[in-house]
Amino acid sequence: RILDLKDPSLLVSQAYVAGEWVDADGGKTIAVTDPFDGALIAHVPDLGADAARRAIDKAHEVQKGWAKRTAKERSQILRRWYDLIVAHADDLALILTTEQGKPLAEAKAEVISNAAYIEWFAEEAKRIDGDVIPGANPSQRIVVLKQPVGVCAAITPWNFPNGMITRKVGPALAAGCTMVLKPAAQTPLSALALAVLAERAGIPKGAFSVITTDDAKPIGEEFCHNPKVAKITFTGSTNVGRWLMREAGDSIKRLSLELGGNAPFIVFDDADLDAAVEGAMLSKFRNAGQTCVCANRIYVQESVAPAFAEKLAAKARNLKLGRGTDAGVTMGPLIDARAVAKMEDHVADALAKGGRLLVGGKRSELGGTFFEPTVMTGITQEMKVTKEETFAPLAPIITFRDEADVIAMANDSEYGLASYFYARDMARVWRVAEALESGMVGVNTPALANEMAPFGGVKQSGLGREGSKYGIEGFLEIKYICLAGM
Ligand code: ADP
């Protein structure tokens, strides 16, 4: 597949290890393909743990120097990286869509809105303030410094191949840390394009490496056991997060985990129903339902449920499936056959237990990994669609009687990333927002993520926050200095 890029140098087939562009030892490569039709886009190196080790060694070697630069210098370099990403957003979006499948407009929005994390943390770099606290006795002062944790390792998923990287690397570099990244094997090209621009922006050689691999485990083990790695930041499935936490426990590494979700999306009878339908469409079908904050379970109060279901089904029917780069396309294919199988399994399970299809329910005529946007009613808490993260374009509607009823159902999950609800009564808004067990709550909106807000989960959805003034804390240690003898 030939991509029509304005800057063809952004499409690279080498990895970026310790400041050098490298091929794999022995020429082992990964074929990167377009999920639209399986066409080959490029080959990238399939690297092993030794490459990760080299990158970590170099990241360790340059970290102190990077941290010693003034905050303003680090900030200016990051700002340049941000400017370059924005300037090349069209090319980055095209690379993203081609390797991941999402519509081009969504890809561009991902690039721009997540580059904003680099912009934000470039600014925050200058505000890593300490503290002076009165001493325990008159001859002492307590001084608090914040220092970078050191070398960080990042592991990112395929659903936001660009944005999941900038929101991790931005704060890490701003804090004075260095970073070794392992992107998802399905979508390494976005990561490598970002590395090209990072190098161009003047990020020092070795401060940011990208290890491409088809065999994640040995790299994960290297990250978890290498004593030079201080922190691991991961976005992906809860199972892999659990494994990383266990492995990294040996050396008490710092961890940020952004894991799975099972977001409830609740519509109360006092809601603006059209706004709720609009929100559910975005929350459920953006990226073909492949986001960790996607509405997974849609709870609608009895009296408005039939109207809501009908409106949602009508809109879902209007989604236009196709190649992400084609004009007017609003939903791309699923990432792979495994994703399709999970969707089919959830639909079949719901049907077997009494669920009904309003629209969709089967693979699309487009073939490949396309699945029809699906809306189901008659859903209960006992079905897989409500218990597990579907990660696909399936909107299951569950009706509820009252507030207590729906809060109990919404909180009946080991996950706690995002939740959403639509209501207008102000007292109810406060009560429900406080009662939902999740790190983020969208009230009358499906759009939660932006660089100014703390993104993250509770329960088994993860640890730590990305974005906002809180997002840099995970890359900093607190040092207390006791100044005595005054
Ligand atoms: P998904 O189902 O979305 O692929 P994963 O959690 O499996 O979710 O993948 C997210 C990221 O974690 C990817 O970059 C993947 O390669 C990586 N990954 C998966 N298993 C491991 C592992 N054992 N060690 C390190 N990284 C892993």
From TrEMBL:
<dbReference type="InterPro" id="IPR029510">
    <property type="entry name" value="Ald_DH_CS_GLU"/>
</dbReference>
<dbReference type="GO" id="GO:0009450">
    <property type="term" value="P:gamma-aminobutyric acid catabolic process"/>
</dbReference>
<feature type="active site">
    <location>
        <position position="258"/>
    </location>
</feature>
<dbReference type="InterPro" id="IPR016160">
    <property type="entry name" value="Ald_DH_CS_CYS"/>
</dbReference>
<dbReference type="Pfam" id="PF00171">
    <property type="entry name" value="Aldedh"/>
</dbReference>
<dbReference type="InterPro" id="IPR016162">
    <property type="entry name" value="Ald_DH_N"/>
</dbReference>
<dbReference type="InterPro" id="IPR010102">
    <property type="entry name" value="Succ_semiAld_DH"/>
</dbReference>
<dbReference type="InterPro" id="IPR016161">
    <property type="entry name" value="Ald_DH/histidinol_DH"/>
</dbReference>
<dbReference type="InterPro" id="IPR050740">
    <property type="entry name" value="Aldehyde_DH_Superfamily"/>
</dbReference>
<comment type="similarity">
    <text>Belongs to the aldehyde dehydrogenase family.</text>
</comment>
<protein>
    <submittedName>
        <fullName>Succinate-semialdehyde dehydrogenase/glutarate-semialdehyde dehydrogenase</fullName>
        <ecNumber>1.2.1.16</ecNumber>
        <ecNumber>1.2.1.20</ecNumber>
        <ecNumber>1.2.1.79</ecNumber>
    </submittedName>
</protein>
<keyword id="KW-0560">Oxidoreductase</keyword>
<dbReference type="InterPro" id="IPR016163">
    <property type="entry name" value="Ald_DH_C"/>
</dbReference>
<dbReference type="GO" id="GO:0036243">
    <property type="term" value="F:succinate-semialdehyde dehydrogenase (NADP+) activity"/>
</dbReference>
<dbReference type="GO" id="GO:0004777">
    <property type="term" value="F:succinate-semialdehyde dehydrogenase (NAD+) activity"/>
</dbReference>
<dbReference type="InterPro" id="IPR015590">
    <property type="entry name" value="Aldehyde_DH_dom"/>
</dbReference>
<dbReference type="GO" id="GO:0005829">
    <property type="term" value="C:cytosol"/>
</dbReference>
<dbReference type="GO" id="GO:0102810">
    <property type="term" value="F:glutarate-semialdehyde dehydrogenase (NADP+) activity"/>
</dbReference>
<feature type="domain" description="Aldehyde dehydrogenase">
    <location>
        <begin position="21"/>
        <end position="481"/>
    </location>
</feature>
